[in-house]
């Protein structure tokens, strides 16, 4: 699956079968379901990719302090791109 194909699934009722939990979380975010995405991020706290997801979610939420904490745990800097651009970068990373 590539990014264009993944984007096409965003209008579906459920995320596509067989995708990673990280992509599933991004699917939920694109469908305004922050809580479901956050549950996925919390499920594997301490795993860098999930901590990066966690950071992104708190950034979208507007909690920059909490986002900064999670970016540091993930070993990443605070992004200078928009949250929409970050979503795309994360999707490409996890596809």
Give an overview of the whole structure:
It is a single chain. The chain contains six helices and no strands. The protein is mostly helical and 95 residues long. The longest helix is centred in the middle third of the chain and has 14 residues, at 48-61. The termini are close together.
- Helicity, in percent? 55-70%
Please identify the structural class as seen in this structure. mainly alpha
Largest sheet: none
The arrangement of helices and strands along the chain is HHHHHH
Computed Rg: 12 Å
Uncertain stretches: none
Count all strands and give the number. Answer: 0
Briefly characterize the structure.
This protein has helices at 3-8, 21-30, 34-43, 48-61, 64-74, 83-94.
Protein topology:
Blueprint: H1 3-8, H2 21-30, H3 34-43, H4 48-61, H5 64-74, H6 83-94
Helix pairs in contact: 2-3, 2-4, 3-4, 4-5, 4-6
Provide the descriptors you would attach to this structure in a database record.
single chain, mainly alpha, 95 residues
